[in-house]
Amino acid sequence: MSTALLKSKLIAAINNPKPHKLQPAKQQEIPKFYRKKITSERDLTKNYSKLVFKTKLNRIRDQLLQSYEMDSIRDLIIEHSEKISGNFWLTFDNFLKIGSLVTSKAKVYFKSSLFLRFKPNQNRLISSDALFDYLDRSNTNIDMLFNLSNYGREFPGFITDEELGLFFEDMMPRLHLGSQVDGFKPYYLCICTRKLSFFLDPKRLGRVNIETLALSNVFNELLELRDPDLPKDIRDLNWFSAKSTKRVYSKHYDFISVDNFMQMNVSKSGMLDKKELSRYLGGRLTKSFIERLFAEKQTYNGQLDFVGYLDFVLAMEHSDTKEGLTWMFPIFDVKKDGFLDESTIAYFIKDVSIRMFAAGIEDTPRQNIINEIFDMANPQVHDIITLKDLQNCKQGDTIFNILYDFMGFHEYDTRPQPDVDPNSQED
Fold it and tell me: b/e map of 83-110 (b: 16 or more CB within 10 Å)?
């Protein structure tokens, strides 16, 4: 472009300027003082569960009887009972009469349906003691339901393992343990909470339904220890007693031969390996069973921790229960078929037979043992045994004992036979 042309355009721009387009002023942002809380579906569900559980607790609270009401009920039962052969018995009419005299809160118990719960004698009377024990136990369960709900904070209507530990810690002074758990407290709490979890948390979710817990037999076993007059022999057999828990964990002077964690943990590592666990039951566990246990259950670097050992002990000592059988079954279900067939049972019986021979016990043909097991299980399908078969036959604990203890079949086969009255034989 020439200099003259550029100069002329510059002069024209100066003489005829274009109007400037004004930009709107940028508005100042107003600070936010409130942001709407975004509630997730999970939070809504949790809040709803809290509301439902709280409403249920309030409804149940109306059934909780005070001590003066229980004293009045006991006096009325005694007053209206008939004493026969040193025992007190109650007629249906007197049962209803007591119901008309108790407080309005207690009337809910005195209905015909409750009377029919008790087994009558030949005169159609029910035991007065059994009635009051039931009422007392029911009231205690309601009271404990409220106490437990104060600990269950994370999940409405449930109490976690950690929260159970806090509950047990607060309960300890009321269990008449004395100084027997001094220096042993963490293990005592672990042993106690584990039994409740074993029986009431079958899916291992880490929490127990509070209402189920308060009404359970295993929880009633714990509450027995609150009785200062409980006989020593009964107290010592209670899982939650100091003596029983020490039996599981460490050597106790009252036991001549005992399997416990500290005795078997030769390495002092706080964990049990296969060799250490093989000392359980006096070394009677078969190798195949131990191998399967460590393969199936949770271990840490091939070792069983104390909690895992507690589950093992609970399953062994309660193998006649649904929970014990359920825990044990996967160990024997080698092929993960959901049942035990003849080849699976033969796998374990082989080890049993070898150990029996080594111990100098008369060897029983393996097929005979297998046949005996199937006869005991009486399965719905003749050549496989399911968990349900083991639960239904009521001999599942004996069958498992034969499979993991090399002395199991010998003790079963040589068990004392009941005497048969010759007069009862058919001609």
Answer: eeeeebbbbeebbeebbeebeeebeebb
